[in-house]
Each structure stands twice: as structure tokens, then as C-alpha cells.
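Sorry, explain these C-alpha cells?

___
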Amino acid sequence: MSHPAHATLEIPATLAAALTASVYLRGWLRLRRDFPNASSVLRLVSFMVGLFLIWVAVGSPLTAFQHRLLTVHMVQHVLLMAVAPPLILIGAPASPLRYAIAGRAVRPALERLLRWPPIRRLRRLPTHPVVCWLAPIVALIAWHVPAVFELGLRSAWWHDVQSASFFVTGALFWAPVVQSQPGPATWPRWSMPLYLFAATLPCDALSAFLVFCDRVVYPSYLSAPRLWNLSPLGDQQCAGALMWVSVTLIYLLPAVVITIQLLSPPRTPARVVIYEVP
């Protein structure tokens, strides 16, 4: 299926990624100048890699194949939901972006606004772990309903909404796990392995359905030009297997790391947080 609107998607996506990278770098350098230990090089690298993977998903030449192969579409979904968000969060973008955008006179007022009790209460609901866990599951299942998925294939606008919802809900999901900065609502670290393991179950169910279904679920791929002699059903099975293996590994690896950390004797009295960097 041809999708002419996406011929111009790469330019704005590339410009947006370049602008975001430059703004973050500017803020990171200012923050390091004023507080040398406030943000490490690891945070900078993590953010830039995460931003690059977002660009790969929505702005790179990979997008030319998303309407021909479901497997390519699935690669985009995995990058946007499971790979890029934790890297962006490890980069702790809030402080560098504030330093880049707000001047010295504005930053104290902005900090006071963010600490204002009504604002803190407003932030508490979307950052609660229950909401963070449910949001990506609902987005994943809803967007893979055939009629809704087909809508994203036929409309560039809806496809962009789909990509944005995958990234936003992915960031919400990873926020309690990464905890690069203190949040208004956190759960004990011992609950995070269960949180991650439980999230693999809906993904596994969807993946298994795509792998073992004996018909093509999304009709648009039946008429799409074939690449590498891969049949529509074979493409669907590859997409399901990709989601199954990648999501399981990506979610369970930090669960194992957190479990090992919790079972290991603490070296310092400070609370251990996975991925936390100085």
C-alpha cells in the first residue's frame, strides 16, 4: 500500500529530533557549568541514543517499509514503547531542558510553580504505578485491534497519533522502574520485578495470537507489495515473534537486575535504584 503523506514525514521528524538534541545539549552544558556533578556524561549519551532510536522509528528510511511489512511496523512499536523511553528517562531530561529554555530569572519561578501543591497533586495521578502499568497495555491492545490498526495504516495523522501514544505510554510505564529523579508517587523496589513480569503477559498474549493465527489479521498487508518473497502470513508470524522475544527480554532483564540488587548485601545505606546514575 502506498502512503504518500509519509514521504514528507521524515523531514519534520528529523528537524524535531535535531532541535531536541541541540536544546538538551545546551541545557546539559549549562547545568554542568553551574553544577559539575549534577548530570553525568552517561545521562547525555543515554538521552541521545534514545532520541536517535525515536528518529529511527518515525523519521528514518525505515518508515518507507512500514506499510509493506508488519514486521517493520512492529520494530517501530518496540522502539517507541520499550527501548527509547527508558533511555530517555535515564537521561533525566527535565533539568537540562529547563536550563536550556528558561533563563536564570525564570528558573526559580518555574521551580516554585512545579512545587506548588495543586501542580504536585495534578502530577500524582498520571505518575502512579497503576496508571503507568495500565496505560501502555491499553494503548498496545487498542491500537492492535484490526479496525483501529487499519485506521493508522490509512491515515498519516492517525499513524502519528499512534506513534505518539506508544512513546508517551511507554515513558509512563518505565518511569517507576528507572526512577532517574524522585517522583511524587513511587512503589517499593521489591514490587518492580512483579510490575515488569506482569506487563509481559498481555504482550505475550498478543504476540502468540499473531504467531499462531492461521489468517492475516490486518487486510492491508494482503495487497501490499511483497518484499523478500515473504508472504503476508509469514510476515505476521515474524512480527509476532519479534514482539514476543524482544519485549520479554527487555522487560525481564531489568526485573532480574533489580532482584539481584535487592538480594545482594547493600554496600551503602542509600536506596538502590536501577539505572540511577550520578
Notes: Residues 4-263 form one domain. Residues 60 and 156 are 16 Å apart (CA to CA). The longest helix spans residues 232-263.
